[in-house]
Design brief:
The chain has about 110 residues and is mostly helical. The chain has a domain of about 60 residues: lambda repressor-like DNA-binding domains (434 Repressor (Amino-terminal Domain)), CATH 1.10.260.40. It is built from five helices and no strands. α3 crosses α4. The longest helix has 20 residues. It is flat and about 55 Å long. The termini are far apart.
């Protein structure tokens, strides 16, 4: 009989990028959340990628990348611009942190 390898399980921090050791994990999590919102808006409206590209001011291949979750080429600011172009309000709140190093949180309505 083959001996089974032990699988280690640990609880997530809530940020998969941090759990996997990505640099700038908070920024990557934010970009993923913004990209998901853009994806959902485009799908809800039944827009083609060409139509979405005209609204967002980008070429269809870039919309295709966004729709596949590939937001790496876009900054957080650019993703927020896309959301406002899609008729969304984007709010940023800054407040004092309860510990030495602050954190970034995003709440998508």
């Amino acid at each position: 009989m083959k001996k089974r390898a032990k699988i280690q399980i640990r609880e997530s921090s809530g940020n998969i990028f941090a759990d996997l050791g990505f640099p700038n994990a908070e920024r990557e999590q934010l970009k993923a959340q913004l990209t998901l919102r853009i994806y959902r808006l485009i799908r809800q409206r039944g827009l083609t990628q060409a139509q979405a590209g005209k609204i967002l001011g980008i070429e269809q291949p870039h919309v295709s990348a966004l729709m596949r979750g590939l937001s790496g080429a876009f900054s957080v600011e650019r993703l927020m611009d896309f959301l406002t172009a899609l008729g969304q309000d984007v709010e940023i709140t800054v407040k004092a942190a309860h510990r030495k190093h602050g954190e970034v949180q995003v709440h998508v309505a």
